[in-house]
Amino acid sequence: MSDKLNLAVIIGSTREGRWAPAPAKWIAGVAEQHGGFDVDLVDLLDADLPQHLVESDMWSTDSDPSAPVAALSERLHRADAFVVVAGEYNMSIPASLKHAIDYYMNEWAAKPVAMVTYGGKITGGQNAAQHLRQIFPELRTMTIRNTIAFPRFYQHFDERGEFTKFGESESAAKTLLDELHWWALALANARNATPMPSPF
């Protein structure tokens, strides 16, 4: 039985040609080396959530959800913390990520989330991060202070096609994961001590 906290690293884009798996695998690797987490890499493309939200899949009902919704629910429930990896699409987050967030309620509650973003502009996807900071509190999820951003990521590949900025971002990643672990442990202890009250 591991005494590590469970971390779900979520690949937030399902678009063809997406870059999201690269930074997601990188931060998952740093998290595995951190020592405080058991890491689950969640690809929303593989999750294959239905595009049409039917009554049985809605978090506000007691019905049995469809198999893809139930499978992702189990992985999110198991997580003590999240890292969401998202590109910035039209000044916001990918539709696939918002769709996945909206499927669930209690799975996100009383847990911390960190954000790794990227984009074609100098902001490095921080508009996406700011939108996530507006969305997650509605689900009673704690967004941590530190983020990692990769601005104009397409400019930073070497002749072998390897991204050159991961190495210099490792220190920031460790700082982010230290903060995430602190919040995850604090909130896990709080959840175990006292169930979170209903928001309704």
From TrEMBL:
The keyword Coiled coil does not apply. One of its GO terms (molecular function) is oxidoreductase activity. Residues 6-153 form the NADPH-dependent FMN reductase-like domain. Keywords: Oxidoreductase. SUPFAM superfamilies: Flavoproteins. Pfam families: FMN_red. The keyword Coiled coil does not apply. Its EC number is 1.-.-.-. It is an enzyme of class 1 (oxidoreductase). InterPro entries: Flavoprotein-like_sf, FMN_Rdtase-like_dom, NAD(P)H-dep_reductase. This is NADPH-dependent FMN reductase. It comes from Glycomyces rhizosphaerae.
